Amino acid sequence: MGSIDTPTITENGTTQSHTAAAAADGDQKPLASSNGAPAEMTLELEATKKRRASMLPLEVGTRVMCRWRDGKYHPVKVIERRKVHYGGPNDYEYYVHYTEFNRRLDEWVKLEQLDLDSVETVVDEKVEDKVTSLKMTRHQKRKIDETHVEGHEELDAASLREHEEFTKVKNIATIELGRYEIETWYFSPFPPEYNDSLKLYFCEFCLNFMKRKEQLQRHMRKCDLKHPPGDEIYRSGTLSMFEVDGKKNKVYGQNLCYLAKLFLDHKTLYYDVDLFLFYVLCECDDRGCHMVGYFSKEKHSEESYNLACILTLPPYQRKGYGKFLIAFSYELSKKEGKVGTPERPLSDLGLLSYRGYWTRVLLDILKKHKGNISIKELSDMTAIKAEDILTTLQSLELIQYRKGQHVICADPKVLDRHLKAAGRGGLEVDVSKLIWTPYKEQS
């Protein structure tokens, strides 16, 4: 229905509608639509709706602003799309990469989370990269390149693109492990029969994984393990470390690799786990030994690697376990009478943990040591490779090159400042509780 104009009285006593009076005053208002909105506004809204509809479905590669879990909008790139069941022809969900953040935060989002007014035209990425690089300074370009290959330094550009294409969409969204439900970070190449599973259920002791909760419950009634298979080589309080031989416990080793790949972007999945030893750290209680994290190492490394992979599970992060695992790997190196270094590339979080560990260990020695000390002596004391010591001290600006040799400059005030910046150390490894024979001697 149209609205009825309220009559008003004019000076000569005749009645006149508001509309007519306004026209008489020369102040004609725009015509209203049937819903009361001005016609121009209605036309504008219709045009906006048509423009948005013409964009849908969004193409892979589209850049747009997306509402994240913090309630704010962040720039994203559409990586993949999938149709919504029982939806219309343009009803899709979109898998997006937040360009400001690490790939671990990539996720599926609904259309209403996207600000369609911010859509950027899809362009050829090679052309876009070329144009962008022309506008960048050399320093800016180097920083961007470092960000793009973070954790993938060993890959050339073609291999990196292939890796990102193959692993671009997380196949498993969450896992249940013990008393925790954990959101995953990255793709993991589980067997094809698990392709349709968004959630997997892991036995926290043998690491077998299942599609349904009922399957896990049946499995738990039969599984007689209460700790990782292998030898307990360390126990201090509620913490235990188990050494698992990949050759003797092949299925456990492979399952551990599947699990770890969900949280490590750079990791190469090894199906041949025979060549590796796995050191699994656990918190123990009356129900059993619950995995906190692990590291692996090759049984025979020609490059002096004392660690191949390292992971602290998300529920146990920021508790000092990462540095504990690193320290433990060096204690094993000391027992072997060798210096060691982690296999490259390191993940972003792994690199942070190592830098923190190296910094704290070296600064503690320099602070207590009286007189001169060489990099070789530091390496012998810590089992840290000389190159890692050198790069750490250089990053702290504690080393100078004089008369053809490196000289350590250990001013006590500078050391204190760096120690404070390094933050707290991890949990201490009580070497007296370590009962272990190197693999070479076991053989």
Automatic annotation (TrEMBL):
Reaction equations catalysed: L-lysyl-[protein] + acetyl-CoA = N(6)-acetyl-L-lysyl-[protein] + CoA + H(+)
Active-site residues annotated for this sequence: 343 (proton donor/acceptor)
Gene Ontology MF terms in the entry: histone acetyltransferase activity; zinc ion binding
Region (Disordered), start-end ranges: 1-36
SUPFAM superfamilies: Acyl-CoA N-acyltransferases (Nat) (SSF55729), Chromo domain-like (SSF54160)
InterPro entries, per the entry: Acyl_CoA_acyltransferase, Chromo-like_dom_sf, Chromo/chromo_shadow_dom, HAT_MYST-type, MYST_HAT, Tudor-knot, WH-like_DNA-bd_sf, Zf-MYST
Xref: SMART domains: CHROMO (SM00298)
Family: Belongs to the MYST (SAS/MOZ) family.
Protein name: Histone acetyltransferase
Organism: Theobroma cacao
UniProt lineage: Eukaryota, Viridiplantae, Streptophyta, Embryophyta, Tracheophyta
